[in-house]
Task: structure prediction
Amino acid sequence: MIPVMYCGNDKVFDGMLISLLSATKYCKEPLDVFILTMDLQDLNTNYTPVREEHRAFLEETIKKVNPESRVRLYDLSKPFMDEMKDCPSLQTNYGPYTFARLFADYIEEIPSLILYMDTDTICHGNIAEAFETDMAGYEFAAAIDYLGKFFLHYDYQNAGVLLLNMNLIKRNKFFDQVREYCRTHDMYFPDQTALNRVVKHKKFFSTRFNEQRMLHKNTVIQHFSKSIRLWPFYHTVNVKPWQIDKMHSVYKIHAYDDILEEYVALKKQFGGK
Result:
């Protein structure tokens, strides 16, 4: 099975659905999907977790491609609140759910190697190719951050797609160290910056596994993260895959229209349940 991880609350269900639809378009092997969520309504009433009906619908959807695929849901509210409730970076624009992946070491069932993807990713190739990466001696592999290499550090990595070596992460207590860094430092890109600063030996993915700019023929995963445009004036662009009209008008991307059409149909079906 191909193990995949997503993190978030119920607001990113659309992103998970699109990302999984795209993954199953190119990868016909069974997917073992881990969804890490948290109920943080004590912090904000909008912080409601991914629900069981979300999990069941996603699993039903990917089983149509391979009946052996499955989706598992994990609530990490307690360990998060125990460790991170006073984290100085908790109130950034990225919200608390970005920290959920740092608690993957709490999950006993998690496999030795797993691919984490943000919920604003769309696959354009077979994600199984990512697992061909030699991970000996590395806690994770990640691509260079397109903007970070200019504004932060030449080898600053983007954490939107991570190949996680969970055996080494647990053995070295790597996530414990990253969580400690998050608790003691105020950062704009909280856990992404913490990962960059705590890691001792960086393993770099090709950007084809985390393409943050333009779609290329060999792109495997395109990540629709916030970007900067200089023309006709300096401005930021932050269009997500479920914003279909903007995908067409702003990015001029139609390569995923078949996936997005299926997403719209499935969303109507889910809404009718």
Notes: The chain has one domain: 2-226. The CA atoms of residues 35 and 193 lie 23 Å apart. The first strand starts at residue 2 and ends at 7. The chain has a mean pLDDT of 93.
